Amino acid sequence: MPPFDPPADPRLVLVGIDQKSLDHTGSWPWPRNIEADFMKTIVNAGANPHTVAFDLLFTDDYDKFHNLKSTSGDNYDELLANAAGQLPSVVTGALSLAPEHKLKDELFAESETQIELSEPSLTVPLPSVRGNINKIVGSNVAIFPIRSLRKQSLFGFVNDEPSPIDHVRHSIPLLVHVKDKVYPSFALQILCQMLNVDPDKVEIDLPNCIVKLKNASGKIWSIPISERGEFTINYRREDGFQGVSFITLLSYLGDHAANGTPLPKEADIQNKVLLIGQTETGLTDLGPTPLQSNSPLVYTHLNVINNVLHNDYLGFVPLFWVVIGWAFFTWGTLLSLRYAPIFWFVYIPMSVTLLYTIFAFAIFWVWSLEIAMAWPILSYGVVNFGAVILRWREEQRGKQQLKQIFSRMLPSGLVSHLLDHPENLNLGGSMRPVTILFSDIRDYTKFSENIDTAELVRQLNIYFERMVACVEECRGTLHKFIGDAVMAAWGDIPALSLGVEEDARNSVRSALMMRLKLRELNIERQAAGQIPLRIGIGLNHGDVAAAQIGASIRSEFTVIGDPVNVASRLEGMTKEFHTDLAISESVRLLIGDGFLVRRLGLIQLKGKTKATVVYEVLAEKTKPHESKWAEEDIARYEQAFDDFLARRFTEAEAGFLACGKNHPEDHCVKRYLEVSREFLINPPPPDWDGRIVMETK
Prior knowledge:
The protein has 697 residues and is of the alpha/beta class. The protein has 3 domains: 12-310, no CATH class; 315-406; 422-592, 2-Layer Sandwich (Alpha-Beta Plaits), CATH 3.30.70.1230. The protein is built from 21 helices and 29 strands. A hairpin with a 4-residue loop joins β11 and β12. α15 (453-473) runs antiparallel to α16 (500-527). The longest helix has 33 residues, at 374-406. The radius of gyration is 33 Å and the shape is globular. The relative contact order is 0.07.
């Protein structure tokens, strides 16, 4: 959660119907005895939540269609209603519908709605409304929870249609009208339960766009709405809300009720509000929000409730002040830069634009204030940059032509570097801390032996296109192609370097990206009847000479030194360890803790007298799904490896055996398990330090 996001109200708990719940309970929709059992388990466990709210629609008689009965003979709808009656506060969803176009369908739907409204229900319309209720979102047609459930629980309307402009949910109705009555939304109904506000203490002032809630002690909450009764949501990050899987919570509560097993923190629902909703991406109740392209829509209700509880409303800077500020800065810039050099004509407007952007984000993060950004920035840029574009284009035309020619033969970053600093074309260079990457296609002979030359070149070019894009995207420099191999570096060009640590991290990100892009390419190749490609990647860091090497009539920019050779050796040793990515200890020390990493071994590379620890990078920690190894598996493997190096071969054997349960085909696990067992029978000599000596490159 970002630092400017206040923590979510600790009383709110999202109970997610996720993939784990579906795997355990069955495909969606569930028979209603599952939700009934959930509520009964809460009662049996004595968990005592304040409110249980289902962001679900129980609007059709389930057993009318499914003819399902419990073992006791009760139908599932009655079970659900009876279970709801055992809890102090349960809220379910209703939905307002647009009527059909045909008159008879519309009249029938309205008649059905009128019949449902006349039935007994715990939910009553809000009586205190000032203004024209026809402006409020709603219609004469709605669907409600089943009648037996309405007698035991409250309902609120879950309508949350996206904006017709960008199809994003910026706001949702806080109020819904059905015929001539106004009802609370799902979120407002929950708020009334949390704050102990009776329906007759909800005051709706449409002309002033305010909903006031007043509890028995006299405390008042004023909620801003639009004339249509809609609430603009101030979204907060989803990971700021407490959440637990539906089946996990049910399991904890069941164990507590049956055996008295203590409840863990995530299952502590005492006096809390549980919102049960769909969170699995394969279900239907998802859609775009300003924070995510496909978010569980239960978060819209969570954010509304959280906004009100924290008085965390979204505000807007008046248009008048935006126009005054725009005019001041626009005319001030034009007058002050009238005769200024082109550098200042570009620098000052860019700085003003950047400061305005920072200001806009700052007031949004700190005070939840929105200010117009698109038209002020766009019009300011048009006014200030219109004249300078022509001057700038003339000066850049010559440089651009050179870039277009040489960028096909040299990395774009290097072309810019040499054009901006022509003195670097002279032979010679300087020592720089650089991270070097080598990648190579495995079994290249097998790949190329049955392909004619033209087709081989075509396929290689497709492969290189994907791999080079990974280097470029991660701010690396492509140095050369060596047959089917790629050599790249980070830190060799000062203008592209972000510092040795970030350069190293970018090199690893580039390698991980190569791995993913190769998977995508192999899918395309297999679909085309071509054999999949495998690669090995080696990364090393060290001080090398970044220099212009060659003769006076022909030279190239490259890096030379022993760290380059080590990177090539690391790429070669990936064959021995059946992995596609190996990094040296120097790289491991620079990249920090942002990656899932494990040790491959203490390796003495060919041509070296000293051994070094070599690592395998599995994924970034922010993307754990890209790794087959979970963090707990890596920790178990690392402990086993420590035991191995410390000659504790019994413990090492047990550790590698445990790793093998989840990763039975892993080469390192099998290798070190086998060696540990051998050493238990025939211990190594006293000078053994665990190193593996590589005999090949």
